[in-house]
Amino acid sequence: MRRKIVAGNWKMNLTFQEAKELALRLNTWVKANKPTAEVIIAPTHLYLEQLNKDLKNSHITVASQNVSAMENGAYTGDVSAEQLLSIGTKMSIVGHSERRAYHYEQDKYIGKKITHLYELGMSPILCVGEKLEDRDAGKHFDVVQEQVTVALERQKEEDLKNLIVAYEPVWAIGTGKTASPDQAQEMHAFIRKTIGAQHGISIANSTSILYGGSVNPGNARDLFEQYDIDGGLVGGASLKLEDFTTIISANK
Ligand SMILES: O=C(CO)COP(=O)(O)O
Where is this chain's protein located in or outside the cell (predicted)? Predict the structure, then answer.
């Protein structure tokens, strides 16, 4: 059975007070409503320690938005997997398109991050997705195949059980333009096939593949009903409790 998941990527939003309040209100909602989907939030690194404490015995996982590809040392401004784990964080987003675009992160480097996480018993949410020009040129499958295979090529099979991948077409992020359910399903099935070819069918079938890119309360249900869409990675709409909880409820 693949895990159903709805994750909120808060990006560089919310003050500490706002983040704390949103996390606590979300926790109250999750306790009262017991959603089918697992709930994950990814606040800025700065708030992880406090939110880990506030949500300690909750059903919400607090994830990091990024992690260094290096173990430790002279990497000013970076945060290592070991440091994250030392404050109780066990999951990190890696390869988000904003990291790829503004920090020039590439697939091999993203693969190193994943390896570090696994070495410490932590887990990644691997983000992949093509740019508009790739899709217009008909190269979207090639681009995503390369992103998935290079990031996962050095990982051990036993680590990849319960992998989480997020398909986030760059042209759909923060633009209000969502991939249609058919477009998303087609790519999710392709990602699962790609993982199956590389690591075997059992890992492919236990991978949760989330869709990200302008998910909102109005389009979530149609996306989540697709066979290979196991949930969402939500940006803007995860900052509003009502919108985020409506999206969580849509993933049954
Ligand atoms: O990048 C995203 C989540 O990681 C998606 O962001 P939006 O939901 O704001 O389009």
Answer: Cytoplasm
